Amino acid sequence: MKILFLNGPNLNLLGQREPDIYGRTSLADIEQSVRERAAQSKVEIDFRQSNLEGQLVGWIQQARGQFDAIVLNAAAYTHTSVALRDAISAVGIPTIEIHLSNVHAREEFRHKSLIAPVCRGQITGFGPNSYILGLEAAISVNAK
Ligand code: DQA
Questions:
Q1: Distance between CA atoms of 101 and 21, rounded to whole angstroms?
Q2: Sheet holding 121-124, edge to edge
Q3: Closest ligand 1 atom, CA of 73?
Q4: How far is CA 142 from the centre of its chain?
Q5: FRET label pair with 134: which of 43, 54, 96, 102, CA 20 to 30 Å apart?
Q6: How far is CA 67 from CA 2, 71, 105, 129, in A?
Q7: Tell me, what DSSP letter sits at residue 100?
Q8: CA 116 to CA 112: how far, in whole Å?
Q9: One pLDDT digit (tens) per residue for the chain, 144 residues
Q10: Residue 4, SS3?
Q11: What CA–CA distance (Å, rounded) separates 79 from 109?
Protein backbone atom coordinates (compact mmCIF):
# COMPACT_ATOMS: atom_id res chain seq x y z
CA MET A 1 0.00 0.00 0.00
CA LYS A 2 1.26 3.48 -0.90
CA ILE A 3 0.06 6.64 0.81
CA LEU A 4 0.78 10.20 -0.28
CA PHE A 5 1.03 12.90 2.42
CA LEU A 6 0.53 16.41 1.11
CA ASN A 7 1.12 19.59 3.11
CA GLY A 8 0.01 23.04 2.04
CA PRO A 9 1.21 26.59 2.63
CA ASN A 10 3.21 27.65 5.69
CA LEU A 11 3.49 24.12 7.05
CA ASN A 12 7.22 24.30 6.20
CA LEU A 13 7.38 26.76 9.14
CA LEU A 14 5.99 24.33 11.72
CA GLY A 15 7.96 24.50 14.94
CA GLN A 16 8.56 28.25 14.59
CA ARG A 17 5.14 29.34 13.38
CA GLU A 18 2.59 30.36 16.08
CA PRO A 19 3.80 27.63 18.47
CA ASP A 20 0.92 28.28 20.88
CA ILE A 21 -1.42 27.04 18.12
CA TYR A 22 0.72 24.59 16.15
CA GLY A 23 3.25 23.42 18.74
CA ARG A 24 7.04 23.16 18.50
CA THR A 25 7.33 20.04 16.38
CA SER A 26 8.79 20.62 12.91
CA LEU A 27 7.35 19.12 9.73
CA ALA A 28 10.52 17.02 9.40
CA ASP A 29 9.89 15.55 12.88
CA ILE A 30 6.26 14.82 11.96
CA GLU A 31 7.43 13.13 8.76
CA GLN A 32 9.84 11.00 10.80
CA SER A 33 7.09 9.76 13.14
CA VAL A 34 4.78 9.05 10.19
CA ARG A 35 7.58 7.03 8.54
CA GLU A 36 8.13 5.00 11.73
CA ARG A 37 4.42 4.24 12.10
CA ALA A 38 4.10 3.42 8.37
CA ALA A 39 7.04 1.00 8.54
CA GLN A 40 5.27 -0.97 11.29
CA SER A 41 2.37 -1.56 8.87
CA LYS A 42 4.65 -2.10 5.86
CA VAL A 43 3.10 0.92 4.16
CA GLU A 44 5.13 3.00 1.72
CA ILE A 45 4.78 6.73 2.07
CA ASP A 46 5.68 9.84 0.15
CA PHE A 47 5.67 13.10 2.15
CA ARG A 48 5.61 16.50 0.39
CA GLN A 49 4.98 20.16 1.13
CA SER A 50 4.30 23.13 -1.15
CA ASN A 51 3.24 26.72 -0.67
CA LEU A 52 1.75 26.70 -4.18
CA GLU A 53 -1.83 25.70 -4.91
CA GLY A 54 -1.03 24.60 -8.49
CA GLN A 55 1.76 22.32 -7.27
CA LEU A 56 -0.62 20.61 -4.86
CA VAL A 57 -3.22 20.22 -7.64
CA GLY A 58 -0.51 18.70 -9.89
CA TRP A 59 0.56 16.21 -7.22
CA ILE A 60 -3.05 15.14 -6.62
CA GLN A 61 -3.57 14.60 -10.36
CA GLN A 62 -0.33 12.60 -10.69
CA ALA A 63 -1.29 10.39 -7.73
CA ARG A 64 -3.86 8.54 -9.84
CA GLY A 65 -2.72 4.94 -10.26
CA GLN A 66 0.31 5.58 -8.02
CA PHE A 67 -1.16 5.89 -4.52
CA ASP A 68 -3.91 4.09 -2.61
CA ALA A 69 -4.80 7.07 -0.43
CA ILE A 70 -3.92 10.71 0.17
CA VAL A 71 -3.57 12.31 3.62
CA LEU A 72 -3.96 16.03 3.05
CA ASN A 73 -3.26 19.00 5.30
CA ALA A 74 -4.26 21.66 2.80
CA ALA A 75 -3.64 24.38 5.44
CA ALA A 76 -5.18 27.73 4.36
CA TYR A 77 -6.24 26.30 0.97
CA THR A 78 -8.71 24.11 2.89
CA HIS A 79 -10.89 27.18 3.27
CA THR A 80 -10.41 28.73 -0.18
CA SER A 81 -9.53 26.23 -2.89
CA VAL A 82 -12.15 25.04 -5.36
CA ALA A 83 -9.19 23.80 -7.47
CA LEU A 84 -8.01 21.38 -4.75
CA ARG A 85 -11.55 20.17 -4.18
CA ASP A 86 -12.03 19.53 -7.89
CA ALA A 87 -8.67 17.70 -8.13
CA ILE A 88 -9.59 15.38 -5.23
CA SER A 89 -12.95 14.73 -6.82
CA ALA A 90 -11.43 14.15 -10.27
CA VAL A 91 -8.85 11.54 -9.22
CA GLY A 92 -11.19 9.61 -6.93
CA ILE A 93 -8.40 8.49 -4.57
CA PRO A 94 -9.66 8.18 -0.97
CA THR A 95 -8.45 11.37 0.72
CA ILE A 96 -8.29 12.08 4.44
CA GLU A 97 -8.40 15.75 5.47
CA ILE A 98 -6.22 16.52 8.48
CA HIS A 99 -5.35 19.55 10.62
CA LEU A 100 -3.08 20.03 13.60
CA SER A 101 -5.40 22.55 15.25
CA ASN A 102 -9.14 22.16 15.80
CA VAL A 103 -10.34 24.36 12.96
CA HIS A 104 -13.88 24.37 14.37
CA ALA A 105 -12.67 25.96 17.63
CA ARG A 106 -10.93 28.82 15.80
CA GLU A 107 -11.97 31.81 13.64
CA GLU A 108 -15.22 31.41 11.75
CA PHE A 109 -13.51 31.46 8.34
CA ARG A 110 -11.74 28.21 9.34
CA HIS A 111 -15.03 26.43 10.08
CA LYS A 112 -15.74 26.00 6.38
CA SER A 113 -13.72 23.38 4.50
CA LEU A 114 -14.25 23.36 0.73
CA ILE A 115 -12.52 19.97 0.52
CA ALA A 116 -14.46 18.17 3.28
CA PRO A 117 -17.37 17.07 1.04
CA VAL A 118 -14.99 15.22 -1.31
CA CYS A 119 -12.81 13.70 1.45
CA ARG A 120 -13.55 10.43 3.24
CA GLY A 121 -13.35 12.17 6.60
CA GLN A 122 -11.70 14.88 8.65
CA ILE A 123 -9.23 14.66 11.55
CA THR A 124 -8.72 17.98 13.28
CA GLY A 125 -7.21 19.12 16.56
CA PHE A 126 -4.76 16.41 17.64
CA GLY A 127 -1.51 18.24 16.91
CA PRO A 128 1.18 16.12 15.23
CA ASN A 129 -0.86 13.04 16.15
CA SER A 130 -3.42 14.11 13.51
CA TYR A 131 -0.87 12.81 10.97
CA ILE A 132 -0.66 9.38 12.66
CA LEU A 133 -4.46 9.22 12.92
CA GLY A 134 -4.61 10.24 9.24
CA LEU A 135 -2.27 7.39 8.35
CA GLU A 136 -4.42 4.93 10.32
CA ALA A 137 -7.57 6.22 8.61
CA ALA A 138 -5.89 5.88 5.19
CA ILE A 139 -4.89 2.28 6.00
CA SER A 140 -8.37 1.46 7.25
CA VAL A 141 -10.17 2.80 4.17
CA ASN A 142 -7.96 0.54 2.05
CA ALA A 143 -8.35 -2.56 4.24
CA LYS A 144 -10.09 -5.26 2.28
C1 DQA B 1 -4.18 24.05 9.60
C2 DQA B 1 -5.42 24.91 9.90
C3 DQA B 1 -5.66 25.94 8.81
O4 DQA B 1 -6.81 26.74 9.12
C5 DQA B 1 -4.46 26.87 8.71
O6 DQA B 1 -4.64 27.79 7.65
C7 DQA B 1 -3.17 26.14 8.60
C8 DQA B 1 -2.96 24.91 9.36
C9 DQA B 1 -3.84 23.07 10.74
O10 DQA B 1 -3.11 22.12 10.49
O11 DQA B 1 -4.28 23.28 11.87
O12 DQA B 1 -2.23 26.63 7.96
O13 DQA B 1 -4.46 23.28 8.43
A1: 7
A2: 44-49, 2-7, 69-73, 95-99, 121-124
A3: 13
A4: 17
A5: 54
A6: 5, 11, 32, 22
A7: S
A8: 9
A9: 999 999 999 999 999 999 999 999 999 999 999 999 999 999 999 999 999 999 999 999 999 999 999 999 999 999 999 999 999 999 999 999 999 999 999 999 999 999 999 999 999 999 999 999 999 999 999 885
A10: strand
A11: 7
Spans of all domains in the chain: 2-141
Quote the CA–CA distance of 130 and 50 in Å, as a whole number: 19
Residues with CB under 6 A from ligand 1: 10, 73, 75-76, 78, 99-101, 103, 110
The answer regarding whether domain 2-141 maps to CATH 3.40.50.9100 reads yes
Residue 111 falls in the annotated catalytic set: no
Q: How far apart (Å, rounded) are the C-alpha atoms in residues 88 and 119?
A: 8
* Residue ranges with strand state E in the chain: 2-7, 44-49, 69-73, 95-99, 121-124
